[in-house]
Amino acid sequence: MECSQIGLTKFYYLTKEGHNYIGGYYTLPKVPEYNLQHHLQINDYLIKMLELCNNHPHLKAVVSERRKVYEVKDEKKNQKGVKYFVPDFIFMFLDSIGREVEWQFEIELTLKTKRRYSQGVFPKYIKHLKNYEDARLIYVTPSSIIKEELDMFKEYFIDKEGDEYKEVFDRLHVFSAEEFESELKRLLEKDKFINWE
């Protein structure tokens, strides 16, 4: 394994020698350069979230995007050309009766099309939040422009859905990179579904 650093960002990668050492069981992924920054940011936020959880007694698992894609594909085996909307990662906690509580994370480095947000991404996540009163969706972006756009889409859907779903949108968070740590600390301390004895 090797470690490199660009600015304050560190990233670790498996060398060819390391790959061969573990038997070369896995194909080496071909990650386009434009995706590299996204993968690095996901890892950074994932590590930060693990640090913030600091052995949280009700943290059950962390689910990767790759695993979630495979789970969704297994459910829809015969569909070809389907775009899978899955979060970048999920933290799963247990509530007081043993049900899983999902905190889904999206690390947004580039804007998607308005159509994709308005007809695909936001409706899917809003439906999930309506179905699971304990779930959270957490968007994080280093870009003030992207944050502003995400906040506008959130406001659009708040207006569209009406006051009866206010509580749903209280669980749809859009944070800047600077807000991430303090806001997640607050949520981890205050969330009634994951803090019980």
What's the quick description here?
The protein has 197 residues and is an alpha/beta fold. The protein has helices at 16-21, 33-53, 65-75, 114-131, 144-161, 166-169, 177-190, and strands at 2-6, 9-13, 59-64, 89-94, 100-107, 136-141, 172-176.
Distance between the termini: 41 Å
Structural class: alpha/beta
Quickly count the domains.
Answer: 1
What gyration radius follows from the Cα positions, in whole Å? 18 Å
Please tally the helical runs, counting DSSP H or I stretches of 4 or more residues: 7
Order of secondary-structure elements? EEHHEHEEHEHHEH
Q: What quaternary form is this?
A: single chain
The general outline is: globular
Mean pLDDT: 86
Topology:
Blueprint: E1 2-6, E2 9-13, H1 16-21, H2 33-53, E3 59-64, H3 65-75, E4 89-94, E5 100-107, H4 114-131, E6 136-141, H5 144-161, H6 166-169, E7 172-176, H7 177-190
Parallel strand pairs: 5-6, 6-7
Antiparallel strand pairs: 1-2, 3-4, 4-5
Helix pairs in contact: 2-7
Could you characterize what this model shows?
The chain is of the alpha/beta class. It has one domain (32-190). It is 47% helix and 21% strand. The chain contains 7 helices and 7 strands. It has helices spanning 16-21, 33-53, 65-75, 114-131, 144-161, 166-169, 177-190; strands spanning 2-6, 9-13, 59-64, 89-94, 100-107, 136-141, 172-176. The strands form 2 sheets. A 5-stranded mixed beta sheet has the order 3-4-5-6-7. Strands 1-2 form a two-stranded antiparallel sheet. The mean pLDDT is 86.
